[in-house]
Description:
711 residues; 54 strands; mainly beta
Amino acid sequence: MKFRGFLRLSFFLSLFIANNALASKFDINTFEVINSNVSDKEPVGIYGAYGPSDEHRVVVLDQAKNGSQLVFTFPNTITKKDVFFISDKNGDGVNDVAFFGKNKVNERYQLFVKNGLNPNELVGKWNWPVKWQDAQVIDAGDLDGDGVRDVGLFAINTNNLVPQVSLMSGASPLEELGVYSFPKGRVNKQVKIFDDSDADHIDEFGVFSLTRKNKPVLFIRSGGQPSVKIEQYNWPANWTEQQVVKLPDLTGDNVSEIGLFGRRVDDERWQLHVKNGTTKKGVVGIYSWPASFENVSFHIVDDMTADGSPDFAVFGFNKANAKWQLQIKNSVDRSLVNNITWSGDFSDVELLKISDIDNNGVSDFALAGKRESIDTTQVQIKDGINSNLIQSHNVVDMVLPTFKVLTINNKKTLSVVGLVDDKPHYRRLSGNGEFHTISSSTATFVDKYKKGVEVFDYSASSHITIGEGDYAINLKFSGRGADSVYFYNDQNNGVDISHGALQIKDISDATKFTFRGRTVTPEINSNRSVVVTKNFADYYAVVQVLDVRNDGYDGNIDSVVFEWAIRTDGGTDFTSFEGKKGPSLVSCKEPSFFDSGGCQLVDGPYSIRSSSSIQQFPRPNNFVLGQFTLISHGLDISVSDLVAEDLNRRVSPSFSGLFDGEVISKNHSRSFTLNIPPTSYLQARPYFRLGVTSEGSEQVMLEYSGSFTSN
Length: 711
């Protein structure tokens, strides 16, 4: 559901790499099947960090000849933000290969585009001033009319904090075409390209956000005239997990409609509110889905009812039946078309929409993920109209399988890309119901690092083991203070603290440490948070302590959160390590008669629905509804959406320890609680929401709602 494939490589086979082999290896931790902004055609491309210098490379597999490949390289002086396939920029009719990131020296965003048929040809390099931050690239429309789609940068201008789109010519990287400005001081920014509505034959730019009063707003500017405002769409402050979506034309004016999809605060149902694509006045339609759905995604699916209009669907985990479910609604009359369900023991799921494979005239749907009951990656295909199981496939020989839908002979065909014997393989579902290898690469991916993020309750167990086999390393902790722990060397061959390192990748030579003494005392949020240790087989690990909870001897929470990396090849240089990126959330509970308590990592958005009634004497000034820690991994994050309110307007709930607008530096943490004052036996309906922004992308991390009564 999130991939489109790529370009045609039917000639230039002589450019494939003279020796038909790659002398060095890729790091398996960088294995990434890359996307296309413009096409869902084959072949398939794989990104990886290559060789000792971790050079950025893209290996493109051609389905026409097994083993054939094109290799595109990009400078390692750029920190990768995105790699993808972009519309043709040099006029040869083939989509090109794009690499976008920030220059490590001058901190400017740069976009490199190479000829999709010739890896040695740099089509263009686009540069933006250092004032732009939190950026993303847009493959925009053709503003200058030269037949080449232009290149936009959506970012925050740090000079004035205004979100802007800086548009440059797609054919001439030095030619600036205009800057589009949007209202500032808002959160949850999402940029979209919408159909031309002012008859200048150029698509419009729109930015979706929330006001400080949590009202969703979509502001649209003319694509042809940057200073001209087309329309501003507004919705009431009754939404969470909201997004704006571009929909098919439902009104017959040849302009796509605009929808707001999200969860209503008042009744927790999921809804799609549709407005006309040319005017904010009125409502085209409202579509609703059950409140029992969690981990939800919205989909536009093919026409399931033969009424000439694509239909709308919501996919998620239905708590009412403990199953993954796709519920499809008719886009014309809003009636229920179908409910398709899959077992609830799938994890890390992905929904894929494919063409009709059982020949009954409607599209089918595949669910791919890890089946916990059989500990195997599995894909199940079900019929789009009667929900019957058509096919089921286990993927047992492939590491890091990634399922994709590619258009083959005008049919949306299910494919899978992953590593077999450390080499990338591309397989396609054939007519006989089996996955067949279409092409494979000579590139080799090896696991240079074992890594992870752990939450460890050191009051309940003496140690935790990271790694396995020869490179297994035992870690032992005990409490020391509010921001520190004792880290022991009892079961290893040495431990030392790095004075000055701010992250794991700051360790360039693990052998230089003295490894003397029994303990070290790392401190969170400081230049003493990184520890280097080794086992008796001389495998090295680097551990960064991110959060500590020391409640002493009162029987409450004693835990440590840490990120770790082990060089599985015996190496000592960790500078190429790429760990978790972005925010994570730790939820903690005090032990009780019914609950052993403790802390755990949770995925965002983490939703809590709770109803409680408490009487406590003496009555406190505030009751604590939840304890959490927000952690920033590898990137600075800013608290961009902090909401605490009582929907019954009786009391004033609050976050304690976290503030709207504050920035949490990379590899730092912030502990906080959700508080509510006494209600004097009146019922309150507390609602909390936490959203954070990292590199221009906002993510809702926490939502809490329910009822509360106290003395």
